[in-house]
Design a protein that fits this description.
This protein is mainly β and about 120 residues long. The protein is built from no helices and 11 strands.
Length: about 120
């Protein structure tokens, strides 16, 4: 099993950058695909980015392509989300998620979740 803990959220002005980290417990981190999701008040939790087991393939929501980068470091059992060019509409609680083997864009496919970290982008 994997336990996930996010960090790195905060308050930033529009156009700024943040790097979110998700630290995972367990020895089998390399067997998990990882994703980032976000949820704003009154809205559904939505897909942001995902990375496959090996880290060779990444996937992004259209709204963040070219601005966000997901990466994975198996040696550190950590997945990152580098967020550049932040916009007020990026404001949300960001969640790290994991699932065995295959990458997915669907929140329902992920069995392991972190507690979330708040990202607030001021205009």
């Amino acid at each position: 099993q994997v336990q996930l803990v996010e960090s790195g959220g905060g308050l930033v002005q529009a156009g700024g950058s943040l790097r979110l980290s998700c630290a995972a417990s367990g020895r089998t981190f390399s067997n998990y695909a990882m994703g980032w999701f976000r949820q704003a008040p009154g809205k559904e939790r939505e897909f942001v980015a995902a990375i496959n087991r090996s880290g060779s393939s990444t996937f992004y929501a259209d709204s963040v392509k070219g601005r966000f980068t997901i990466s994975k470091d198996d040696a550190k059992n950590t997945v990152y989300l580098q967020m550049n060019g932040l916009k007020p509409e990026d404001t949300a609680v960001y969640y790290c998620a994991g699932r065995k083997l295959f990458v997915s864009r669907s929140r329902n496919d992920y069995a392991y979740w972190g507690q979330g970290t708040q990202v607030t982008v001021s205009s």
